[in-house]
Amino acid sequence: MTVTNGPPAGAGLQETTKKGRSRWPLGSLPSPRSLLRTAEIDTRMLGMLGALALIWISFHFWSGGTFLTPRNLWNLSVQTSAVAIMATGMVLIIVSRNIDLSVGAVLAAVGMGMAVLQAEILPRWLGYDHWATWIIALAAGLLMGAAIGGLHGFLVAYVGVPSFIVTLAGLLVWRGVAWAMASGRTIAPMDSTFQLIGGGSRGNIGGFWSWIVGAVASAVIVALLVNSRRQRRKFGLRLRPLWMEISVGVIGCGVVLGAIGYLNRYMLPERVAAERGGGNIPFGLAIPVLLAIVGTLVITFVATRLRFGRYVFAIGGNPEAAELGGIKTRWTVMKTFILMGVLVAIAAAVQTARLNAAVSGLGQGAELSVIAAAVIGGTSLAGGVGTAAGAVLGALVMQSLQSGMVLVGVEAPVQDVAVGIVLVLAVALDTIFSRRSK
Question: Is-contact 59 404, C-beta < 8 A?
Fold first, then answer.
C-alpha cells in the first residue's frame, strides 16, 4: 500500500510508502517551493529567520564586529526574555479577536507590589533576606496579575465592553496604581534570592547545566520527530522522506547545541569567578531565558494539545460558530486574560529583579513591543492564526533592531521610526498572505 506524499502532480511529486521509503520520479527535480511543502516547513517562519539573520549580520559589520559576540548575544537573550514571555500570552489574546493595551501598566503595578512586599512589608515580620520572602512576593505577584487579568476578562467577556476600551482604561488605571503604591518613589533593594530571576552574574545556570539543557532539548526534538512519524504511519497519513526527517532533526539539534556552545564562550568576571573557585567559568543560560523557553513550551502545549487552546482558535476563527458549537466562549475569553495576567506577573518579576528596584515608569511602552512581537511573529490581527514560537521570534527581531541601533549610536527618535516601519511592513505582509490563502 502506498500513500501519496507531497504536492500535486507536476510539482515534484513524491511517492512515500508507509515504511518511509520515498523517491523523486525519474527526470523530475523538486522545486524549492515543493521541497519546503514536502518538508512541512513554515515559509513565513523561515522568512523571519532570514530577516533575523540579515539584521544580525548587518549590525555586526556596522558595529565593527561587536554585535555577534557571545557577550552581546547573551545580553540580547536576557533583554528579549520579558517581552517574549508576555508575547506568548498576547498571541492567545489576539487569536481570540481581542487586544490588551494594559500589559505595560500592569507590569509596573505588579512589579511595584512585589517590590513593596520585599522591601517594606515582609522585612517587618520576617527580617531581610528571609528564605520565604521571594516565594511570598512572587506568589503575591502571580495572584495580583491573575486578578487583574480576570477583571479585564470579566468586563470584556461578560459585561461586553470592547477589549480595546477595557485595556486602554487599564493602561491608565494601573499606571496610576503603580505610582500610588509608593508615591512615585523608587523601591529597592530586592531580596537576594529574588534577584536571581533577573539574570546577571548570579542569575544563570552555568556552562555545565546549560549543556544538560541542550542535551535534553535535543532529545525532545528527536522524540517529537519519531513520535510524529509513528503517529502518521499509524493513521495512514503522509510521511516525509526519511532523509528529510533526519535532516530536520540534525539541523534542530545542531542549532540548539551550537547556540549553547557559542553563549558558553561568555565568561564570568574574574571577581565573581573567584567567589566560585576561580578559572574560566561560563555564564551559561540566564534564568529569564529559561523562563521564556518554558513559557513558550507551555503556551504551545496549551494552544495545540488542550481543549482550551482549541477553543481559543475556534473563537478566533468564527465566534458565532464556536458559540453554536457549545463552546463557553465568554469563560474561554476570560481565561485568556487571566493567563495573560499571570505571564505579565512573571515578566514583572524578571524586570524588577533585573533592575533590583521598582519604579512607577517600569514597563513604559511595553504594550507596543509585546503587540508588535506577536504581529511580527505571524499572529493575525483578524484572529484565529498565531503561534507562541513565532511571537518569541518576533520579540527577538524587535529587540535585535533596538539593541543594534543603540549599539551603533542611532538616536532614539530614529529607532522609533525604524520599529514603526517594521511593524507596518509586518501587518502589510500578513494582509497580503491572508488574501492569497483565501
Answer: yes
Cell of 272: 565573581
Q: 175: which 3 cell numbers? A: 499606571
Helix intervals (H) in 270-365: 270-275, 287-305, 307-317, 319-324, 329-355
Closest of 168, 166, 155, 186 to residue 334, by C-alpha? 155
Look at residue 22 and give its three-state secondary structure. strand
- The C-alpha cell of 226 is what? 519519531
Euclidean distance between CA atoms 390 and 433, whole angstroms: 15
Q: Are 48 and 392 in contact, with CB atoms under 8 Å apart?
A: no
pTM, full prediction: 0.89
Segment 342-367 mean pLDDT: 93
Q: In what order do the strands lie in the sheet with 2-5?
A: 2-5, 14-17, 22-23
Cα 54 from Cα 402, distance rounded (Å): 14
- Contact between 240 and 40 under an 8 Å Cβ cutoff? The reply is yes
- For all residues of the chain together, what is the average pLDDT? 87
Could you read off the pLDDT of 142-159 as tens digits, one per residue? 999 999 999 999 999 999
The residue type found at 371 is I
The closest alpha carbon to 383, from 118, 208, 163, belongs to 163
Of 249, 262, 264, the C-alpha closest to 218 is 249
Record the cell numbers describing residue 24, joined without a space.
523523486
Contact 22, 5 (CB under 8 A): yes
Grid cell for residue 336: 485568556
Closest CA to 202 of 283, 111, 118: 283
Residue (of 71, 92, 90, 70) closest to 82 by Cα position: 90
Give the angle 184-186-191 at the CA atoms, nearest 5°.
140
Please name each of the domains of the chain with its CATH number: 77-203+286-437 (1.10.3470)
Alpha-carbon dihedral 136, 137, 139, 142, rounded to 10 degrees: 170
**Nine-digit cell at 122?**
515582609
Alpha-carbon torsion (148, 151, 155, 156), positive or negative? positive
Least confident piece of the model among 44-48, 161-165, 263-267, 318-322: 44-48
CB-side neighbour CA atoms (13 Å) of 69: 12
Phi, psi of 97 (to 5 degrees): 70, 35
